[in-house]
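Supplementary Methods, section 5.1.

A reviewer requested that the exact input to the structure prediction be made available. We therefore reproduce it here, unchanged from the version used in the analyses.
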Amino acid sequence: MRPNRLHAVPLTRCAGLIALVALIALSGPLHAQAPLPQRATDTPAPGRHDPLEPTDKMAARVFAVFDRDCARCHDTRRLKRRLPAGGIANILDLDAIARRRDLVRPGYPEGSPLYVSMVTRHMPFDVLHDLEPGAEPTANEVADVYAWIAGMSDTKTCNHGLPLPTDLAERIARDLARLDEPTARGRRYLSLAGIASSCDDAEALKRYADAAMKLVNFLSRGPRPVRAESLGGDGLLVAFDLEAVGWSPSDWDWLQELAPARPATDQVPGGQNSRSLLDRILPAGWLAHQAMAPAVYAHLTGLPATLPELFASFHHGEGNVGETQSYRIEASPVTGGRRQLARLLTSDGRILWTARDVNPSAAPDAQDAVVQTRAIFALPNGLPAFALYNRDGTARIDVHASALAPAVAQSGATGSALGCIACHDGGLAAFEASQGSGGSSPGGWQVRRDNALFQIAERSAGLQRDLRIDGMEPVTALAQRYRRDLGLATAAAELGRTPGDLAPRLRGVEGALRPTARRLLQGLVTRAEFEALRAELSAIDAARNSATTPPQTPVPSHDDELRLSLWTDKAGYAKGEPAVIHAASTAPCHLSLIWVDQAGDAVVVFPSEFQEENLLQPGSPLSIPGPGRGFRLRVDEPDQETIIGICMAGDRNSPPGILHDHELQPFTLLGHWREHISRSLEADAKERSKAGKTNRKTRSRRRRGRRIKSLPVRADKRPLAQDWALVVIPAGNVTATIPPAGADTTPAVSRESGHSASPN
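The structure derived from this sequence is encoded token-by-token as follows.
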């Protein structure tokens, strides 16, 4: 049964003495509240040497670019903000960044979100989007990042085998066989199998296993810290006991109902027996992500649903208050306004800290001045717990907008529940109270004493105090890992399949999710898109077993976020075969398709004289060449030619640096692609320099007696909204096509042209 109130761990006077002794032994700085962020200088301090700086000349140039332009927001050691942005906290660890397939696609910069964010002028965000003073990456620096990614190879293999469902079931069976029956009955597991496909080394996987152990303890209702057990040398399974963490079998079943859809029983080798073993597993990354949601966090920890219930669980108001101290903060760097802090200590030694956040625009004595209350206290096992309540005492999902300093809001520290751990890993943050607010040295010994008790509990659980994963707090990093965009290998691992097994199943997906399935075959999908695909594949399996038509899974909403999908009509091509490229988007945009051959020469194959209208609407995929368009795209060198798609949002119909004159040439030739990128950056800079200035609506220039319209004048200097996608023309003699629904893809009569990637 789920308890209806939280039983906090008692902090006795003896425990206080232990805390003071432990404080002397603790290593590393105390967790302190970060100061207000300041803009980093663009030039590193002279003479500074970073141990991560590579010796390779190319990598060293890229390191210098990231150090100057990115580290202030994306590297924990250089941060000029409260939390790292965009889920990147170790941008200067080039080896780690190169392993992240959601950032880097080895050999293909245009398919690498890290590079695309720079070449489209979306990073550095503070300089190019927020328009703060500072330097932007030069064309040469962008070219260095291009060359660094282009020079990578993707031939590295994992040091561990890809775990399939049967592998995990066999491991569990061996583990249960060595336990007595009562212990085996309550044994449960968290899996890191989905992470293994990224080719992390053994040390990296061990850190994630430690993060899973920490997660279990921070969600526990048990009376004492638990040392979870990592099974096997690779640490892909973390075992723990339900009773030890205070969960019931019904709690586990509740989580299983929330968990992502799993393969049907007949899809799991070993049948029902393997299924019963796999029912004991939950994905560790998924659980960390779910624990950031207040409802899940409250259910698992037994967190009181309202602020009065929280006070009642500490017997507050029942004559049991041994000591109460209050503090006032006039200008908090966290909220940007006033705060009222209180430390409640009951006569039996239990502690509850509360922070009442005041709306800066409200009068001090106004009834609606307090907008929310935050709380930090001890779980029964002694580790810190977090709660957030509305003015009326009901639970809140996220921090009130009026109680967020701009720097904190930009850092993304807006959640509640276990999301608070990103800033409060060590418990309480030091603070400076106003004069006369009560108490002495409020940021001093009381905070250190209480945090020392939290840290004693961490050590009892075997948790490393200074552990970081990719520069982040471990549980936060585990949840971030789950939220990253996925490629084919990671998706297959999460589904318990190999990439070779998953690929044909994705090609069989039809309907609204068809573009998403094709993008996963040749690129990345978001977590929401993958979960929709998972549900669709599960529905297809169920329908196949029952001989019914599977229901169509709805396409996940991205709140009008622009996502471009490209795919080819065949899974592979022989030399000289014609190719058809399909494109789809999640929001209206104007599409440009650029064919880059093996020599690096580029030509815009869409729009062209044959297909001039390039507006791509959601739900209406385009085919290039379209039926009856009178030209073909011939493959000269499979696996060496690429198609780059650039879709511009709004009224903009082509990227900077591309002007079409289809009366002069049917296809726009760009020359060498890398040289064109430099020219496009120059064109973008010129446009931004004139942004917002009064001009005629249409400027023009003369060429051979004709007036050629130029690109529209930009309203401001912010980067243009757009999305990129890349498809490598695959090699092979596969003849099965993937036609768009209801379209005739029979190539029309060919037309001669001099470019190898143009009509032939």
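The first strand starts at residue 187 and ends at 191. These observations are discussed further in the main text.
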